[in-house]
Structure formats: structure tokens, C-alpha cells
Design a protein that fits this description.
Blueprint: E1 2-5, H1 14-26, E2 31-33, E3 36-41, E4 44-51, E5 57-64, H2 68-71, H3 74-96, H4 100-112
Antiparallel strand pairs: 1-5, 2-3, 3-4, 4-5
Helix pairs in contact: 1-3
């Protein structure tokens, strides 16, 4: 599980963005179970998001399709992985307010603590 901090000012409407962003960025309506929203898209067999620590962090659990390169040519599989990564990063920026570089810095700082 990975937790992402939410930028100041992005906590208002955070839960709605968390859910709406899935459909907006992945084009798939997520299924809901006990406050956990999940979907399958591209190289993700399962992508599950939910409220993290005190409702102030985005918690994400994912599992990837390790047979992707067995099912597709290398070029097709790489395209699927790139598309999935792009959608995922856009989703995270939409929900957290931080771009990938900022998220990386935040995660490194949290790991040092």
C-alpha cells in the first residue's frame, strides 16, 4: 500500500475528487466496497483507492498484470504500460495537487522520518 499526502487546499472535496478522478482519468466507473474504490485498467489487474490516515491522505493498493508481455508484442505491451502510467500520474496529480516530481520529494522526506 502507498499513501500520498494531499496538498493544502486540496482536502476540501478530496473524497469526491478521489472517486470522480478514477472515471475521469481512466474512463472506467469504479466499483465500491466499504469506502474502497477499485477498477481494472491497462496494466493494472486491480487499482484500489481509499482514504488514508485521518482522511488526509490518499491510500492506493495496486496489482499489475505480470503476463502482459506474454499476451502482447513488446511494442504493444510497452504502449499499454506507458498509457497506464500516464493515466495514473494524471489521476494522482488531480487528486493530491502534487505532480510526480513533488510527490517523489514528499515520499523521500517521509521515508527519512
Amino acid at each position: 500500500m502507498q499513501e500520498y499526502p494531499i496538498k493544502r487546499g486540496f482536502t476540501k472535496g478530496f473524497e469526491e475528487r478521489m472517486v470522480d478522478g478514477l472515471e475521469k482519468h481512466f474512463g472506467v466507473k469504479p466499483s465500491e466496497s466499504n469506502g474502497h474504490y477499485s477498477l481494472s485498467y491497462g496494466s493494472f489487474i486491480n487499482l484500489e483507492v481509499f482514504l488514508g490516515e485521518k482522511g488526509k491522505k490518499l491510500a492506493v493498493e495496486s496489482s499489475s498484470d505480470i503476463t502482459l508481455f506474454d499476451k502482447h508484442t513488446e511494442e504493444e505491451a510497452n504502449k499499454i504500460v506507458r498509457d497506464t502510467t500516464k493515466c495514473y500520474n494524471n489521476y494522482l496529480e488531480y487528486v493530491t495537487g502534487y505532480n510526480s516530481k513533488e510527490r517523489s520529494k514528499k515520499l523521500k522526506a517521509a521515508a527519512k522520518k
